[in-house]
Amino acid sequence: MGETTFIHLTDLHVGNPAVVDDHLFSDTSATLERVLEMIGMMDQTPQFIIASGDLTNRGDVDSYLQLKAIMASIDLPVIYAIGNHDTRAGFYQGILERNTDLDAPYDHDRIVAGIHVITLDTTTPGQIGGSLEPEQFAWLEAALDAHPALPKLIVAHHAPALGDTPPWDHWRTIEFGQSQQLATLLKGRNILAILSGHIHHDRFSVWHGIPVIVGMGQHAATDILTSNVLRMVEGASFGIGTIRRSGLTMALVPLPQTRAELNRYDLKLLRQKQETALAEAAAS
Question: 4-283 architecture in CATH?
């Protein structure tokens, strides 16, 4: 196979320009427009774009229509995943013009430029963290079996849990037990990488032999130099992936930034909020 080039976007957090949103900390529409302009100036035109979730900030149909209008400026296939800020109904109606099965997970796959791209919906409605249902694992296994010889990219907004024990900040990842199940299912399946977002900082890991590439995104950056609070600062980047016979290379393109503080969250409150949501889900 020859070289395949693609773009990794994530956490676009596009908003409806007609609605004031106190939880939108930067002009994400302008940032996305600038990113697409930069992509259009690349010497080597990429074959496709992956957008790994949190496509909008509020999940309303009008925000997806805004996203769709911006993305129309570039003539490339776009592979979407959805994240915890998205809603399935809003995405289906705004992007896909679909009005049936609005609660169904958005799992899908396609072959583009010789690469089998498999997209998982890791959202858990009403919660921050990620999960996968048994039916999704069955669907994933069938998708993996369908094209065993093709190299694969897995797209999921939440990255799997990386450690050997459940993390205390479980809202950042796919649920721990399901992450372990996912590792077993992906073993030996010609996986080039998992592409994710959600945590708002660039991070590369090797997880059970599989590269897990998390992008900062186009909304704001997590200040990873602080640990007692979740501090959000100005920052944005996108990734350029190159696939060769030897494997995958990711290069990052940072946008100019000051790292000025945009917002901060009390991690104790964030943890309490997620655990309350988990308890309510279990009770129902």
Answer: 4-Layer Sandwich (3.60)
